[in-house]
């Protein structure tokens, strides 16, 4: 008895898996913990994330996806295998079809790497689709019509921007900038401005709890603790929404510039459609306070956030695998 189909969203921050008949069965961080001596898998997903920055010398945590690209194929395969093993209904090599999503402008080598991973899972078809197309479908856009639709998918490691019409991508760009980069910017800003070293998880918490990309939309404060650069001792400080704004300002500017570059090469007839339909935001970055206000001000277009931004890609795989749209596998 074969499991008919699965869809996989290989996110830099999280991996999501759709199983036909069961919906989303996996939604866990893209992290794996390994025993450095035996190379045995200690933990994956949520359990591995809890270990990040806290492990003894014989255990290391890895994020095999960076900026949407697989940087460690062996770790990636181990991570996926261990996550799938958590779902009893999924039996390796008994999967009929697997659809895996990749960033819009992945290189041929990156595309082939993803296909190779799929080939080790599926008995028959391996399909690789562009994230921007799949996210748009999962967000509820009808891209099969001639009208133009625009989506911005801000994930953990990449930002995909695309104009879609007649079932495919008309113009697009993919930046290797995402939520993880904002975390790093917060971390580095605090180190530079406050002489305080903090961990990745603390930086992410600061971004989520007090972050904004538009001044005045949020004015919150959070107290954090780290290691003083000079004394080496633990020390606490307060971080404000303005601090996060300043830390992330440069990367947000890059994303805005990329959006404008896509709009500039969009055919006039499709540009006219965007005034009516607006732009839809997907991915974890869609939750960033102030983003809609910033884009509305800069682009003078309606900006909408998908109902479930984090699940748009995996929801799109479900629709594609159920033949709601034609799968191109380009």
From TrEMBL:
GO cellular component terms attached to this protein's record: cytoplasm
Biological process according to GO: cell morphogenesis; regulation of cell shape
Example GO molecular function: ATP binding
Gene3D superfamilies per record: 3.30.420.40
Residues binding ATP, per UniProt: 156-158, 204-207
Function: Forms membrane-associated dynamic filaments that are essential for cell shape determination. Acts by regulating cell wall synthesis and cell elongation, and thus cell shape. A feedback loop between cell geometry and MreB localization may maintain elongated cell shape by targeting cell wall growth to regions of negative cell wall curvature.
Similarity comment: Belongs to the FtsA/MreB family.
Name by which UniProt lists this protein: Cell shape-determining protein MreB
Species of origin: Kurthia sibirica
């Amino acid at each position: 008895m074969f499991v008919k189909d699965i869809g996989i969203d290989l996110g830099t921050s999280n991996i999501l898996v759709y199983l036909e008949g069961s919906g989303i069965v996996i939604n866990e961080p893209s992290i794996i913990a390994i025993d450095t001596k035996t190379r045995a898998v200690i933990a994956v997903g949520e359990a591995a994330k809890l270990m990040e920055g806290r492990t003894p010398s014989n255990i290391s945590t890895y994020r095999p996806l960076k900026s949407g690209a697989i940087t460690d194929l062996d770790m990636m395969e181990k991570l996926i295998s261990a996550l799938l093993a958590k779902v009893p209904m999924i039996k390796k090599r008994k999967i009929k079809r697997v659809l895996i999503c990749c960033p819009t402008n992945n290189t041929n080598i990156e595309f082939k790497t993803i296909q190779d991973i799929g080939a080790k899972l599926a008995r028959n078809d391996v399909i690789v689709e562009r994230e921007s197309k799949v996210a748009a479908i999962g967000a509820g856009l009808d891209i099969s019509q001639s009208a133009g639709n625009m989506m911005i998918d801000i994930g953990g490691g990449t930002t995909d921007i695309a104009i879609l019409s007649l079932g495919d991508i008309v113009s697009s760009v993919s930046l290797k900038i995402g939520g993880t980069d904002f975390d790093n910017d917060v971390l580095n800003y605090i180190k530079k401005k406050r002489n305080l070293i903090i961990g990745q998880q603390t930086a992410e918490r600061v971004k989520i709890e007090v972050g904004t990309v538009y001044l005045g939309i949020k004015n919150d404060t959070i107290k954090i603790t780290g290691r003083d650069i000079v004394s080496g001792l633990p020390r606490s400080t307060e971080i404000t929404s303005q601090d996060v704004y300043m830390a992330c300002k440069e990367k947000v500017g890059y994303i805005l510039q990329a959006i404008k570059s896509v709009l500039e090469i969009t055919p006039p007839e499709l540009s006219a459609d965007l005034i009516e339909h607006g732009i839809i935001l997907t991915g974890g970055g869609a939750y960033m306070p102030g983003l809609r206000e910033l884009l509305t001000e800069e682009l003078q277009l309606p900006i909408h956030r998908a109902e479930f931004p984090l699940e748009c890609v995996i929801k799109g795989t479900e629709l594609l695998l159920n033949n709601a749209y034609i799968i191109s596998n380009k």
